[in-house]
Inverse folding.
């Protein structure tokens, strides 16, 4: 125990109903005692328990909070902890700090995530589906090569189109004179996301040229047709899948599948880290 570090951790909780005091732990902040400038931040990647307590939960907003916490800690240092909960929505709380002895910050962070946030093993096998699954694979690949934290997340289309546009692109980065954006689009069921992205692409492209003085490369990441249950025997599903892909490609959207993500992540690594 002598070589363990004295640390302090905080749990981030989603609290949809404060009267009932129902909550789900969604993240862990861990720092060495008195050192907010070196705080590790991690939120869950499995939002199934949040959806169990609140089917209408804004998961995209909750995912975006992870980046907001990192930003505040980077800008404010030790003063950030008092500001973090104020920056959250009324559905999110941060617990008071608790002492913890860790072999190292990364190892301690992993242990606390397993103890308080990640679902039990019997739930871990639950299959993610649709856009959630694609987004998780995309994030995992960018994290694998060390560039996820360098990328913009939940990019507001309104910055490039017009006020009130609700669309947010999942992530992106800018190497030189090109803005590369990536958006998870599931073609397993409703094709609405594909159609919205196709409709928005020309306006976003014009806005990027105007605001950033750069060209836009917009990529839609979809599941392979073969991974959609029953699609091989269902002509209607095959037709719908092809329609969505062609609709996006007609608007100069590059359409890739999750099988291409390792290559895409490695390209981002070369552009951002080398």
């Amino acid at each position: 125990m002598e070589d363990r570090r004295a640390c302090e951790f905080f749990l981030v909780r989603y609290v949809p109903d404060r009267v009932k005091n129902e909550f789900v732990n969604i993240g862990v902040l861990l720092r060495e005692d008195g050192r907010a400038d070196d705080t590790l931040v991690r939120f869950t990647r499995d939002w199934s328990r949040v959806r169990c307590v609140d089917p209408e939960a804004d998961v995209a907003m909750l995912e975006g909070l992870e980046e907001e916490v990192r930003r505040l800690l980077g800008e404010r240092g030790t003063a950030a902890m008092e500001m973090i909960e104020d920056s959250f929505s009324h559905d999110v709380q941060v617990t008071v700090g608790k002492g913890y002895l860790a072999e190292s910050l990364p190892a301690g962070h992993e242990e606390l995530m397993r103890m308080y946030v990640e679902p039990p093993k019997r739930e871990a096998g639950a299959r993610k589906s649709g856009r959630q699954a694609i987004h998780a694979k995309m994030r995992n690949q960018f994290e694998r090569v060390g560039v996820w934290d360098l990328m913009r997340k939940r990019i507001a289309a309104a910055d490039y189109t017009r006020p009130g546009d609700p669309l947010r692109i999942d992530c992106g980065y800018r190497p030189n004179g090109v803005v590369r954006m990536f958006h998870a689009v599931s073609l397993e069921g409703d094709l609405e996301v594909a159609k919205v992205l196709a409709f928005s692409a020309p306006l976003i492209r014009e806005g990027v040229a105007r605001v950033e003085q750069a060209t836009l490369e917009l990529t839609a990441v979809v599941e392979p047709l073969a991974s959609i249950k029953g699609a091989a025997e269902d002509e209607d599903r095959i037709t719908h899948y092809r329609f969505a892909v062609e609709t996006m490609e007609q608007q100069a959207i590059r359409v890739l599948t999750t099988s291409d993500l390792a290559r895409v992540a490695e390209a981002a690594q070369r552009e951002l880290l080398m």
Notes: The mean pLDDT is 86.
